Structure formats: structure tokens, C-alpha cells
């Protein structure tokens, strides 16, 4: 077990949930963030925990948080703005790093820029160890494991049943703007390639009904090929917009053209982040009444589905808090930037997801 588990961004919505789960499991994490007032109050509420002030805008304060035997859990988003200092601090220390990002641009940057430095320092970096995209890595891996060596393609779809804009935290909504307007990628023909967001639309059978979803970049594009060498194609989809998925696809075509105009993309992000801030968020420390559902299909070269897996259970925030608390206490195979199957092994990963409220639906 790690010497210490440090939760950076502990006073945010997801950070507080993770810290609370750790305490419930008998762990005393170190809380870190910008506001001394909020940190001290939360530390007292959770039983007199140790806390430290750290600010992503002052990188040295983040580097001072961890040593080689620690685990650094980062929930500071949007990660494309504030996430790199924590990841770099973990590389410098040679420690284990876990984050909860769902932002394709940040995921790609970690895998492409920090894998070699992490291998040299002995650091273990686990991005997106949350509902999106760890749950999909598990569902996809289970389908591929059942399908066997003939499976060269896997499709993963994420759904939130009963959710809506008010079920998203403020940080998630701000990140979502960057996801919609940002650059995306996919694992195609044996390598990760740049693609347009919502390039593809397809449906999965979810809770007995065909539900549409559009494609996006996800950690699975890196994590699953690393664990299954025969893979040639990975597709990740989100069904959050349901029947509007094709409208989003059409909009992405127009958006990809418009964003080529200088300064248009940052301007759209600026106003988009302010617009979503006007939508109400769930109460801090609570999770909405939403059921998560992840569908995965493994196919052969001819497109025949060889195996399908459906996982369902706790809403995304509840799963993320429990799963990160579980993962932070486990030894990690490494070093480098790792997917959850490579980091923990499929059997242990499935057990960890089960303990976090995600079960297989037959």
C-alpha cells in the first residue's frame, strides 16, 4: 500500500466524494487544493485529516505534494487547462498518478508525451480511472477476452439512464464544452489517428431498447490495444444525447469547418463554459438518481459480433468515487501511462468494478 494517498482538488465535487469514500474505507488521505478555508473545513469534517495548499497555477506547490511511494489522485479540471502539473509532478516523483478526466485532448497528451518520461522515472500514470473511460475499458476487455484471438475490433457505448443537464457537476459541464469543441482521435488500422468528433453514429441495445450514440476520443483507444495486441480498431461512443446524436454529428461537420477560422475555437469555448455555468448542479456530496450502462461488442474482421458485454449500476459519480478509492489502494503494474487492464489485470479490475457498484447484465 502507498505511504500516502493525496487527493488534489479535494474540495471539488468529485474530489470530496473520493476523499469521503477513502475515509469510509479506513484510509486517511491528504487533502490538497487552492482554498485553505475550504480545505481545513473539509479536513475537520472528515475526521481531522492532514491537508496541504496546492495550486495548478503554481506548479512547484503541486510538485511538493508527493514522493516516490505516494499515490496522487487528481480531480482538478478542466484537465486541458489545469491537469498537467499534477501529472508532471507524479513523473518527477516516480509515484502513482490517478485522474478522473474524460477529456480526449488531455488523455492523448498524457499517452503521447508522458509515457516515456514516466517509464524512465518509474512513475505509473493511470488517466481516466473513472466511469468514463475505465468502465468501458473493462466492458471492452471482457468482450475481447470472451471473443478470443479472432476479435480485431471492439465498440464501446456509454449511457446514463435517467440523467439530464442538472445531473452533471459544474466541473463536468465545463469539461464537456472542451470535449465537444476539442480534437478527437480513434484507434484505426492498428494506430491512433486524428478524427472529427461525432464522426460515427450507431446504436446499442440498452435496457431492451436500441439507443443511438456518437463517437468520441477515449482512453480505450490506447488502453485496449495495449492489452489485446490483435486489435485493429477501437470505437468509443457516448449516448448522452440519445436521439440527438445524428444532429450532433451534423453539427460537428459544420463546427470542424468554422473552427479553422483563427480565434473561433477559443472564443466558442469561452462563451460555452459560461453558458453551461448557468445550469443547476447536484448538491455537493450527493450523486443524482442515474443508472449507468456500458455496452461493448467484440467483432471479427468481417464485422461479425463474436461477444457482447453489458455492465450497469451506480451513476457515474458514485462509481468513480468508489472505484478510484479502490484503485488508490492497489499495487500497479508499470511503469508508464497505463490503461486499467494493464495496470491491474482483468480479473482484479472486474472485482474492483463490482465492489464499486457496476455489475454485468445478462
Topology, please?
Layout: E1 5-8, H1 13-24, E2 30-33, H2 36-45, E3 51-53, H3 59-63, E4 71-74, H4 79-82, H5 84-93, E5 96-99, H6 104-121, E6 124-126, H7 131-147, E7 153-161, H8 170-181, E8 184-188, E9 191-195, E10 201-206, E11 209-215, H9 220-227, E12 233-238, H10 245-258, H11 264-276, E13 291-299, E14 305-313, H12 316-327, E15 336-337, H13 340-344, H14 346-355, E16 358-361
Parallel strand pairs: 1-2, 1-4, 2-3, 4-5, 5-6, 6-15, 7-12
Antiparallel strand pairs: 7-13, 8-9, 10-11, 11-12, 13-14, 14-16
What does this structure look like?
The chain is an alpha/beta fold. It folds into 2 domains: 5-130 and 318-344, NAD(P)-binding Rossmann-like Domain (Rossmann fold, 3-Layer(aba) Sandwich); 131-315, Dihydrodipicolinate Reductase, domain 2 (2-Layer Sandwich), CATH 3.30.360. Helices cover 41% and strands 23% of the residues. It has a 7-stranded parallel β-sheet, sandwiched between helices. Strands 10-11-12-7-13-14-16 form a 7-stranded mixed β-sheet. Helix 2 links the parallel strand 2 and strand 3. The longest helix has 18 residues, at 104-121.
Amino acid at each position: 500500500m502507498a505511504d500516502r494517498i493525496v487527493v488534489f482538488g479535494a474540495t471539488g465535487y468529485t474530489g470530496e466524494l473520493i476523499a469521503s469514500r477513502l475515509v469510509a474505507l479506513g484510509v486517511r488521505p491528504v487533502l490538497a487544493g487552492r482554498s485553505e478555508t475550504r480545505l481545513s473545513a473539509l479536513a475537520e469534517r472528515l475526521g481531522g485529516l492532514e491537508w496541504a495548499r496546492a495550486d495548478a497555477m503554481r506548479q512547484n506547490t503541486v510538485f511538493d505534494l508527493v514522493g516516490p511511494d505516494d499515490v496522487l489522485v487528481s480531480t482538478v479540471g478542466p484537465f486541458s487547462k489545469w491537469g498537467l502539473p499534477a501529472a508532471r509532478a507524479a513523473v518527477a516523483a516516480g509515484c502513482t498518478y490517478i485522474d478522473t478526466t474524460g477529456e480526449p485532448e488531455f488523455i492523448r497528451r498524457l499517452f503521447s508525451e508522458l509515457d516515456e518520461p514516466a517509464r524512465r522515472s518509474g512513475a505509473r500514470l493511470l488517466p481516466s480511472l473513472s466511469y468514463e473511460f475505465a468502465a468501458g475499458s473493462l466492458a471492452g476487455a471482457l468482450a475481447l477476452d470472451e471473443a478470443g484471438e479472432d476479435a480485431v475490433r471492439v465498440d464501446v457505448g456509454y449511457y446514463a439512464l435517467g440523467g439530464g443537464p442538472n445531473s452533471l457537476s459544474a466541473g463536468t459541464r465545463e469539461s464537456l464544452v472542451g470535449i465537444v469543441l476539442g480534437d478527437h482521435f480513434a484507434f484505426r488500422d492498428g494506430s491512433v489517428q486524428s478524427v472529427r468528433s461525432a464522426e460515427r453514429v450507431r446504436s446499442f441495445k440498452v435496457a431492451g431498447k436500441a439507443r443511438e450514440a456518437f463517437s468520441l476520443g477515449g482512453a480505450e483507444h490506447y488502453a485496449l490495444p495495449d492489452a489485446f495486441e490483435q486489435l485493429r480498431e477501437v470505437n468509443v461512443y457516448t449516448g448522452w444525447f440519445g436521439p440527438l446524436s445524428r444532429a450532433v454529428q451534423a453539427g460537428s461537420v459544420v463546427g470542424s469547418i468554422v473552427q479553422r477560422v483563427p480565434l473561433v475555437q477559443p472564443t466558442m469555448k469561452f462563451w460555452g463554459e459560461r453558458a453551461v455555468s448557468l445550469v443547476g448542479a447536484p448538491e455537493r456530496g450527493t450523486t443524482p438518481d442515474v443508472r449507468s450502462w456500458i455496452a461493448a461488442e467484440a467483432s471479427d474482421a468481417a464485422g461479425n459480433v463474436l461477444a457482447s458485454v453489458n455492465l450497469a449500476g451506480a451513476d457515474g459519480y458514485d462509481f468513480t468515487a468508489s472505484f478510484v478509492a479502490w484503485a488508490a489502494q492497489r499495487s500497479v503494474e508499470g511503469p508508464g501511462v497505463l490503461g486499467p487492464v494493464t495496470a491491474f489485470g482483468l480479473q482484479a479490475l472486474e472485482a474492483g468494478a463490482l465492489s464499486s457498484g457496476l455489475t454485468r447484465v445478462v
